[in-house]
Amino acid sequence: MKFGTISHWKQQLSSGAISPVELVQELASKIEALNPSLNAYISWDKEAALVAAASADISKPLGGIPIAIKDNICVKGQPARCSSRMLEDFVAPYNASSINNLHKNGAITFGNTNMDEFAMGSHGENSAFGATLNPNNPLHVPGGSSSGSAAAVAAGIAIAALGSDTGGSIRQPASHCGIVGIKPTYGRISRYGLVAFASSLDQIGPLSQNVQDAALMLNCLCGYDPKDSTSSKRETPDFSAEIGQSIAGIKIGVPKEYLSSGNDPAVSAALAGSIKALEELGAQIVEISLPRAEAVVSTYYIIACAEASSNLSRFDGIRYGHRTAGNTSLDNLYSRSRSEGFGAEVKRRIILGTYVLSSGFYDAYYTRAQKVRALVAQDFNNAFAQVDYIIGPSSPTAAPRLKDESLSPLQTYLADIYTIPANLAGLPAISIPYPQQSGLPIGIQLQAPHFAETGLLRVASALELALS
User: Considering the entire predicted model, what is its pTM?
Assistant: First the structure.
């Protein structure tokens, strides 16, 4: 089903077996044939990609490689709709810094991938342009919010893709679709040109077919950007430098809170199998504790919704976004424009965020949530004083069924329990697929201290190889 890794196509391009133009044409043919049954892409500009391919420098790290882009990352001259009616007619007037970095390294940006509207969702069903389907089983969701990016890579209609991760939106769909997804340390990749959901949590990252490709993409994406006030000035290492090295003696923590009876039996079995594989590679497994694990979901949704309420206030029908027709007053214009432009999940989060920021409730909810966030970060500091990395599931279950009406919004939010902590603490985390015996894919998550992506990728690659 996969379409070949970045490394495979780099070799093919270097040998002259295929040209960048031919590669784009071949990929476009696959998209045109398979996308109607998946809805992973909501648009693609074949002509623009062919123009870029004609002048591609294949000597560069990503030279001639087409990369799919989540619909909330700006590519000049292309739509950036966040899968929302609010931005249905918006065309990006500039490139995001992450896009400039891809272009600088020779990549061809090709296609806007579907997503949960404004990155708010865990299933890929909240798009104004229709749900994305899981290529492993179209009766199930692909995960979200980077649903289209994950589904496209898993289905072989993208070589690799960019996504964004606010509470697990790269790692969870990677888990549900059976691919690799990494959220780097907050500040590693510039957020300039990423349409904001929750600014203190959002982070761009790659979705790929293997760990090696993820490392290669990080090499091309990371670096300081003066246009992003939260961008780190840390030097960007070679993220692939330690891949292939032994992990003997490395201490890997297993939080006792992650061994919950709430996990699906298949998820528990996958975690046990992964721990066994790491032990056989010489890693030392240590049981640890993350005492605030049960508080992370409520803490996250207070902070994320508060920031969403603030960030999305600009879409009012006057300055930005959809503007209703036939309004009778300013209040009517605001109300109708936002009611028509936003979907149900976005409205739910804006209302919750506005409530927790309102007078009389700010200290009771938002201030307390920020205090708990600091305690969650402290839990990780304490854990990393004992171990080098942390392992756990990416999600407590495999992908739920599409349009499962038995799942309430709260149950959907609880599915993010294992991915949210890395966002609250700003840590790097990666999801890799556990070998699929039968049924739907299951992802295993590894987390690392701040700016320890190189070692994280070393462990993830070793585990990936051991499980293959």
Answer: 0.97
